[in-house]
Amino acid sequence: MRRPVSARRIATLVAILAIAAAAAGCSGGSMATRALAPLPGGLALKVRSSTPVNGLPISLTLVRPGSMGVIYVPPGGHVYSLTYWSRGQRAQGYLTVPAGPKPHALFIYLHGGYYIAEPGHTDDDYWTRQEAIVNAQARAVAFLPNYVGYGPSGGKVGDAYQDTQDVANGLKALARIRGLRLERNATYLLGFSLGGAIGVLLAEHDPQVHAAALDSPWPGARMSLSWYQTNYFHLNRDERLGYKILTRYEGSNTASRWYRRNSYDCQDVHMPLLIVGGTQDDIVPQAMLTTMAADLKDCGQNVEFKLFPGGHSPYGGDEQALIQDWFLRHGISLQL
Question: Regarding the domain with residue range 7-329, which homologous superfamily does it belong to in the CATH classification?
Answer without folding.
Answer: Alpha/Beta hydrolase fold, catalytic domain (3.40.50.1820)
